[in-house]
Amino acid sequence: MLFTTTTTTSPLNSFGSPWPDLNDGLFYSDAVSTTSDSGLTLIHFYSSKYKNSAPLQGWLQRIHNGQITIDGEVVKEPKAILRDGMELVYHRLPWREPDAPYLLQVLYEDDDMIALNKPAGLQVLPGGLFQQRTVLMQLQWRASKGSSSLETQGSHPVPVHRLGRGTSGILLCAKTKVAKTSLAAFFAEGTSLIGDSSNANMEQSKRRKISKIYRALVNGILKQDKIIIKQPIGTTRYPGVAKGLYVASALGKPALSKVEVLERDSQLNQTLVQVEIESGRPHQIRIHLSFIGHPLLGDPLYDVGGQPMCFDSEHEDESFAEDGYKCISVCVAVDGLVFHLIIFFPPH
To answer: Where are the membrane-spanning stretches (predicted)?
Structure first.
């Protein structure tokens, strides 16, 4: 359980539009190159290059549905031969995204930036099954309606840092390209200093323009009042996560978290902590707290040691669910060996 605290002395106002039942789908483009793709059939191209997206039968279904075009023309023949220079486009059909809140509280706003109170359950940027139900989309809708100062010369509403979908708290968003560049630089300066122990950089770190402080409820009782965690974070292969899953890894990038105990509950075997992160690695707080043996309460993914549990239903392969196929990842142990299985469920 992870959240940041938000306070304000002025009345809050909110904005947000209800989500449509279906999103607009997505379009993925490819260009046929002479060296590797020219001469292949359409079905061979997609089923081999994007085999993690769907099985062979799934790509056949998409082709027959007319979801793929070559140079702007719909092609339903799986054995069509590709030639150098052809432009391929796969249309991912519209789908109903998982439920997510849509109202956002405005904590502060001026001509350059807006500070929002992001609710848990709302994704910040498009990814996976969430392509429309995001903070970014609500900002863009608000700007297009001209309901606020977002509708100004050079308006460019965009979040400038990450907050996990399950995390609530303050989210800073830039309203102009100049503000985006400046705020992004402020966030990046802390991460760039991690791993450099020189006195000059340590002093510079103390004078950072932006600090990120979270509160988290973790399993177990932390004995120390204050802990500094310097465990690097990298990626590992994980079923259903194409780019790899972030985990505690000695070969990863430097990361630093400062943990302070706020309250211990021996009866429930839980500890409320405050965490200030000097870097901004993905899932950093979840990984670091689980690394020291105290995973976030209710975390379905990370176990003690900063490594993933064997099965996690939140990390299904989402890339083709909207076309009728579904995939889940399962861990099976046989004679001491652990095998990762990816199971495809065809359309009904």
So the answer is: none
